[in-house]
Amino acid sequence: MPDSRSTGVLKGAINDILKVAHTRGRAPSVHEAETDLRALAGLDYDAAVKKHFDRTQLKQMLKEMRKTLPTLNREIYRTTDIRSLAQIAKNLGVVLQAHAFSGSDGAAFRGFYVNEAEVLKRPLIWVNTAAHPAAAAAAFWHEIGHHLTNRIHGTRRQSISLSSGANYRDNLGNPKEVAADIVRVLGGYPQPIAKRLFGRLDGEASSKDADLLVAKAMPHVRSVMGLTFRGQRSPREDLYLLGGLIHTAKLRTTLLSEYGI
């Protein structure tokens, strides 16, 4: 049974976000936003991940990733400082460019990864700093995931991977995007933290309970990344962030309960 203390947590977060909607431009209604986010929480992440990777494949991929990132799934990757992230990228043979992009839908555009040997001396990651620092750091680790996947497969072919804050459903159908997201998820919720937060969410009903997922994940991202939903940003940006929080918690729960990672 879901924890009764979690009831209404999602709607409460959405209400906090939309309180300022009249001053920040058009935003969906509470009902529209809640329906969309509950649908995201209701997706079958177990089946989506198993479509791409079995237990052996996933654990072997993690083993290979740890050759480059030895602390992956052991320590929280908490830094949001761009200079620190740039140094991490440099150590991994990647150039990080970080700039603010706040175009017509800049809130959704997180970043991209380019790996083209004929054009670039080194692979490139671009991150949108117009987003909340937590979102920029998450995008960075997602793009690092693309870089590690290319390293594992030994490729430097033409490739550009775009990261958005609104395409979680589509990404579940793409094994490259799932693999990249695994890096950022394990960096944000290493196994000891994941066991404490999500260790009991192994039932289908609880793992699809949006209120429970938000109640478990929100205190963690607030303490680690300073991320809150109190109207500091546009409603659209905050709703993207809230969707990302649910997506990350869903994927982390799947990795823990189905793969023991």
Domain count, please report it.
1
Strand order of the largest sheet: 1-3-2-4
| Integer-rounded radius of gyration | 18 Å
Low-confidence stretches: none
- Helix/strand order: HHHHHEEEHEHHHHHH
Largest sheet: 4 strands, mixed
Q: Which percent bin holds the helix content?
A: 55-70%
How many beta strands in the DSSP annotation? 4
Distance between the termini: 24 Å
Write structural notes for this entry.
The chain is an alpha+beta fold. The protein has one domain (4-259). It has 12 helices and 4 strands; from the N terminus they run H-H-H-H-H-E-E-E-H-E-H-H-H-H-H-H. It has helices at residues 9-18, 30-41, 45-52, 55-68, 82-91, 133-153, 168-172, 175-188, 191-198, 204-207, 210-225, 235-259, and strands at residues 95-99, 109-114, 124-128, 160-164. Strands 1-3-2-4 form a 4-stranded mixed β-sheet, with helices on one face. Helix 1 (9-18) crosses helix 2 (30-41), helix 1 packs antiparallel against helix 12 and helix 8 (175-188) crosses helix 12 (235-259). The chain is globular. The model has no long low-confidence stretch (mean pLDDT 85).
